[in-house]
């Protein structure tokens, strides 16, 4: 059987005086109609590997060794001195092998109508009149599930939703029934329910076109459901490869095992840390948050009468898709975006709604750990200074107190002198947690605290949070879009949709017996390790 | 779109009003004009008589309102020296200045676009480095000194081109060359930076991954996106171009608006200064408003946000 | 993709390596600074003394006047050195004034937003929408030209660039979590402004100031060329070139020498400032196929 893509012993280096290997000794092959999953954390070299296959390496990197062939056509053979020219590559790109990228917004030209962009993808390899190309573009858009395609084709990308944009990207990719589809984190920028739709669509178009698929992702669950074979990459090398089911059932390599172990457990928290007798960490009563949107007269109601109670030592997760109001709720609790109606009680005592009106003692009862560890830390300050800041504000700074806080989150004196730019994502998040704990809060608002981290780091941070909660009796308001993460840490789950609570129940109950249709939809959409979703098997032509 | 145009027009009106006010304040700041216009040995009675004749004995608020009315009716009073309509004198000089500014802008911009595209198409580092160094040198000398260098070479040494006045097409060459080189260098820098930024965009990668030619991607994807911010800048740069024109007109004794204004300033002929400033501000504001509306119309993203 | 590359590149802090342009720039500007510092110390330093018998001496003809003399017999080297000191001093003052005014305004507008921002946006839009150079000419001319007036007028009007950039930076900083964090911990606005906003903004201000030096020198010189600004007998680059223009045919060095010194100073400042603003050029659109 002939391989659609064959990569042998590929080496990619940075250019410049002191080249570093980014990908080293990678060999992969994809057979006709097959789906290969390439899994790895950020920096593993998984994207570079496939970009190299189409000659799309970013500036500053180059192929330094190995061999790449698409459909038995050798594009690079460093040993034999074969280097395909621009013209050869152009003939392959989009026709034999087509790509779908991660961020459909930035991957579309903001100034051109989506239909025109699809039409130009059609015309590259199939000379036809503009009019015919436009008709073909509407056909393609319709075939990927864009409703009223003829009408919408004339509008620009910013008028499309994220999921629709990714459909348009797929429409362009299948314009010439390519032998190979390369999807680079195609759903990472999308909500989980939309993610499921896009993956279904990819499977569906492959049934029509018979294309092979290379799916690059950090998400083992996604690969488990959507690939026949998988390759696990780590530090620029393939550490394990084989049939997806076989590898997941019996991983041979340590790294694969670690990745799988880091996947959020399929079980709930066994030992709750709730402390009876202490005042509730948070009581929020009928919170309403509204935003003014420039250019619109009526304010947008982001949170519409949500009530919430979190006991000391309890973790309550608020889940929902982007725009459901979960972050606004958190901001209202903190007072950053004051609620226009409702009441907030922190650690048993009512506080004012606006942050500016709260006293310092009121403010310290609720602290926040932010989602984005880059924006959370002032890039100019050392770790020591960052953690010292809240203590300095309250004039309670001692060197020992900062050292103790850093120790509590697993950082040592060596880290204390570094700048945020010199830390890994997980370490940054630890600094953020230490800073939030400095003032001994009753409630910790965790705003997607692990969603920017690699899975193996996620598990460590969650473990740390669990330990700290037991030690200090903290209440956690855990904001997340990721039900998998929520399952392993939350005692109770609150599901939000369009500013309202649609379901609230203990974690076990939510996962076993979801009542609201939206909750069920969210749960169905979560990729699982244990195989293809809803019985759909990726097609295999052999 | 309509509220945007309304806001933009309001801003334009505010700007013109600000210029009128500054011009008015300037005109009154040095005391009563009567004393400035008459010879030193004039009696106080003569000064008062002239001030009364020109309307300077009225309360300052009335004079200001009178100026605003004049703005609407186009009546800025008569030149003190020439006893002619100030606006008429200004309008008379406009074609000469427009001629300079237009050719400088057009030549500079067209060559800059061509050079920027050439740099991107060839990917030549040498070309970019040469353009960068030459551009930096040109931007390191003010227009009047570059003009003198041109005069030294082409008029004094070679005797090929006239260095003064506006007599033939040949006399257009040196002043336009002076200004056009400045425009060329500025737009080349802006365009090159803007195009290079576009080159790293995801949608450019998408187009290349579809098998489009690099030249096609450059012309259909990168250029429109890169031109948009440059277009936005072009209106604002008009101010710099007009400032440069003033100086260049003085160097080459070019009978344009700039020469008229600088002469009027040194002779304290305020009606001309006022009419000239307001006219320039008006032209500038109209161009900028048009550019803003145009950019907004092309780029519908900002309207949606 | 980009995030991935950044993650790969992040742990090794880049070494500061001067670009060739920066070295050239430092040499050019250094030469001018040396000239302004050393010449006044020479025994022959006399920028004002006239000697009509020794008028219009060419450079290198008379050891007493190494660069020759002007139409009034004044020593050209001394005059150029003084003019450089005057212009550079004025420029520095003007740049500092604008940087302080513009950044303060920008920070206030960006951080507080709302009405303050609307007012400041209007003000800077009006300023931007005015032919500023023309107005400067008019103002400087009407109000009895002097060096002080030029400093005052330019120092108070050329801040829009600073305000716009710092406003944008301050507005984006305000949304950063590390600015929200101290507020939730009991810090007040003053704390946030002094600990986080200002320290993160001043590098931006410095970059604009570095590029602005060249612009300000060019504008003040143009004003001086038009006879506005420093008044005779104190020399300035602009007025020296204006005086020299009359002798362009027979004695071109009178205009050329001050012009060349100005070129060295402004060019040097530009090359140096490009060290700061060096953009990463290139991107995907490089030539060739796989290689």
Question: What labels describe this entry?
Answer:
heterotrimer, A: 542 residues, 20 helices, 21 strands, 25% strand, C: 291 residues, mainly alpha, MetI-like fold, 11 helices
Number of strands of chain A: 21
Helix/strand structural class of chain B: mainly alpha
Order of helices and strands of chain B: HHHHHHHHHHHHH
Query: What is the terminal separation of chain B in angstroms?
Result: 12 Å
Low-confidence stretches of chain B: none
Structural write-up:
Chain A is an alpha/beta fold and 542 residues long. In chain A, helix 3 packs across helix 4, helix 13 runs parallel beside helix 16 and helix 16 runs parallel beside helix 17. The C terminus of chain A is likely disordered. By secondary structure, chain B is mainly alpha-helical. Chain B has a domain of 180 residues: MetI-like (MetI-like fold, Orthogonal Bundle). Chain B contains 13 helices and no strands. In chain B, helix 1 packs antiparallel against helix 12 and helix 7 crosses helix 8. Chain C has a single domain, classed as MetI-like fold, CATH 1.10.3720.10. In chain C, 67% of the residues lie in helices and 0% in strands. In chain C, helix 3 packs parallel to helix 11 and helix 10 runs antiparallel to helix 11. Chain C has 11 helices and no strands. At the A-C interface, helix 1, strand 4, helix 2, helix 12 and strand 17 of A face helix 1, helix 8 and helix 9 of C.
């Amino acid at each position: 059987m002939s391989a659609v893509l064959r990569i042998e012993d590929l080496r990619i280096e940075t250019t410049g005086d002191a080249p570093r290997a980014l990908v080293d000794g990678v060999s992969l092959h994809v057979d006709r109609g097959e789906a290969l999953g390439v899994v790895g954390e950020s920096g593993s070299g998984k994207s570079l590997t496939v970009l190299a296959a189409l000659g799309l390496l970013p500036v500053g990197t180059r192929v330094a060794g190995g061999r790449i062939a698409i459909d038995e056509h050798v594009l690079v053979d460093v040993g034999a001195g074969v280097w395909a020219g621009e013209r050869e590559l152009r003939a392959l790109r989009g026709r034999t092998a087509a790509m779908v990228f991660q961020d459909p917004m930035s991957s579309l030209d903001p100034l051109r109508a989506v239909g025109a962009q699809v039409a130009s993808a059609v015309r590259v390899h199939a000379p036809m009149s503009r009019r015919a190309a436009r008709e073909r573009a509407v056909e393609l858009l319709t075939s990927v599930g864009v409703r009223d395609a003829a009408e919408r084709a004339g509008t620009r990308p910013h008028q499309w939703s994220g999921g629709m944009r990714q459909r348009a990207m797929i429409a362009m990719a299948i314009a010439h029934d390519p032998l190979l589809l390369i999807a680079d984190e195609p759903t990472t920028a999308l909500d989980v329910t939309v993610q499921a739709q896009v993956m279904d669509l990819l499977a569906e178009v492959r049934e029509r076109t018979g294309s092979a698929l290379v799916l690059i992702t950090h998400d083992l669950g996604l690969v488990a459901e959507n690939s026949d074979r998988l390759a696990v990459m780590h530090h620029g090398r393939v550490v394990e490869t084989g049939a997806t089911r076989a590898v997941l059932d019996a991983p041979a390599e340590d790294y694969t095992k670690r990745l799988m172990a880091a996947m959020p457990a399929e079980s709930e928290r066994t030992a709750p840390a709730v402390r009876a007798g202490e005042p509730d960490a948070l009581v929020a009563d009928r919170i309403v948050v509204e935003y003014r949107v420039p250019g619109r007269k009526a304010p947008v109601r982001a949170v519409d009468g949500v009530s919430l109670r979190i006991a000391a030592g309890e973790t309550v997760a608020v889940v929902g898709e982007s725009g459901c109001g979960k972050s606004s709720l958190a901001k209202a609790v903190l007072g950053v975006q004051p609620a226009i109606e409702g009441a907030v009680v922190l650690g048993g005592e009512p506080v004012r709604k606006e942050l500016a009106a709260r006293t310092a003692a009121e403010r310290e009862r609720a602290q926040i750990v932010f989602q984005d560890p880059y924006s959370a830390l002032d890039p100019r300050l050392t770790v020591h200074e960052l953690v010292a800041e809240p203590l300095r504000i309250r004039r309670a700074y001692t060197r020992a107190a900062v050292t103790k806080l850093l120790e509590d989150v697993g950082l040592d004196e060596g880290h204390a002198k570094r700048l945020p730019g010199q830390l890994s994502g997980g370490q940054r998040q630890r600094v953020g947690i230490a800073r939030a704990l400095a003032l001994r809060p009753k409630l910790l608002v965790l705003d997607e605290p692990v969603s920017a981290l690699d899975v193996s780091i996620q598990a460590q941070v969650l473990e740390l949070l669990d330990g700290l909660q037991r030690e200090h009796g903290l209440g956690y308001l855990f904001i997340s879009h990721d039900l998998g993460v929520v399952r392993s840490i939350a005692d109770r789950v609150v599901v939000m949709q369009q500013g309202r609570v649609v379901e609230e129940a203990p974690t076990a109950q939510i996962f076993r017996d979801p009542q609201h249709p939206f909750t069920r939809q969210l749960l169905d959409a979560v990729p699982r390790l244990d195989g293809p979703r809803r019985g759909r098997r990726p097609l295999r032509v052999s | 779109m309509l509220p945007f145009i309304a806001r933009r027009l309001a801003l334009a009106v505010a700007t013109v009003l600000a210029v009128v006010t500054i011009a008015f304040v300037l005109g009154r700041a040095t005391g009563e004009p009567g004393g400035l216009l008459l010879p030193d040995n004039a009696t106080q009675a003569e000064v008062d008589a002239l001030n009364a004749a020109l309307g300077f004995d009225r309360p300052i608020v009335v004079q200001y309102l009178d100026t605003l009315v004049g703005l609407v009716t186009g009546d800025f009073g008569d030149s003190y020296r020439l006893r002619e309509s100030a606006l008429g004198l200004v309008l008379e000089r406009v074609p000469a200045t427009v001629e300079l500014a237009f050719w400088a802008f057009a030549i500079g911009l067209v060559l800059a676009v061509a050079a920027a595209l050439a740099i991107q198409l060839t990917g030549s580092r040498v070309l970019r480095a040469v353009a960068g160094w030459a551009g930096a040198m040109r931007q390191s000398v003010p227009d009047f000194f570059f003009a003198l260098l041109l005069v030294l070479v082409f008029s004094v040494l070679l005797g090929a081109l006239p260095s003064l006045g506006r007599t033939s097409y040949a006399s257009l060459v040196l002043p336009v060359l002076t200004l056009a080189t400045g425009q060329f260098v500025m737009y080349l820098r802006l365009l090159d930076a803007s195009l290079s930024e576009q080159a790293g965009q995801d949608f450019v990668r998408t187009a290349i991954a579809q098998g489009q030619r690099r030249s096609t991607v450059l012309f259909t994807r990168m250029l429109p996106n890169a031109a948009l911010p440059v277009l936005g800048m072009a209106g604002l740069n008009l101010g710099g171009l007009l400032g440069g024109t003033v100086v260049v007109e003085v160097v080459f004794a070019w009978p344009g608006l700039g020469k008229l204004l600088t002469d009027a300033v040194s002779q304290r002929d305020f009606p001309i200064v006022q009419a000239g400033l307001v006219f320039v501000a008006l032209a500038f504001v109209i161009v900028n408003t048009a550019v803003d509306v145009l950019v907004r119309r092309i780029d519908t993203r900002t309207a949606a946000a | 993709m980009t995030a991935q590359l950044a993650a790969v590149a992040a742990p090794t802090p880049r070494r500061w390596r001067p670009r060739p342009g920066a070295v050239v720039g430092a040499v050019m500007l250094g030469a001018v600074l040396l000239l302004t510092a050393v010449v006044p110390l020479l025994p022959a330093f006399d920028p004002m003394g006239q000697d009509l018998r020794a008028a219009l001496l060419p450079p290198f003809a008379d050891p007493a006047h190494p660069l020759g003399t002007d139409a009034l017999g004044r020593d050209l080297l001394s005059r150029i050195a003084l003019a450089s000191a005057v212009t550079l001093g004025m420029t520095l003052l003007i740049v500092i004034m604008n940087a302080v005014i513009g950044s303060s305004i920008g920070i206030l507008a960006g951080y507080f937003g709302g009405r303050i921002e609307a007012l400041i946006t209007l003000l800077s839009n009006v300023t931007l929408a005015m032919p500023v150079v023309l107005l400067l000419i008019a103002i400087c001319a009407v109000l009895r030209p002097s060096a002080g007036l030029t400093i005052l007028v330019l120092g108070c009007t050329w801040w829009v660039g600073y305000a716009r950039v710092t406003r944008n930076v301050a507005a984006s900083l305000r949304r950063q979590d590390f600015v929200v964090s101290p507020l939730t911990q009991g810090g007040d606005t003053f704390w946030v402004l002094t600990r986080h906003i200002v320290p993160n903004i001043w590098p931006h201000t410095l970059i604009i100031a570095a590029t602005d030096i060249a612009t300000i020198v060019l504008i003040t010189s143009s004003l001086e060329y038009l006879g506005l600004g420093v008044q005779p007998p104190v020399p300035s680059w602009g007025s020296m070139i204006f005086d020299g223009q009359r002798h362009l045919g027979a004695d071109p060095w009178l205009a050329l020498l001050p012009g060349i010194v100005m070129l060295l100073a402004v060019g040097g400042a530009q090359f140096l400032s490009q060290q700061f603003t060096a953009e990463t050029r290139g991107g995907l659109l490089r030539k060739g196929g796989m290689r």
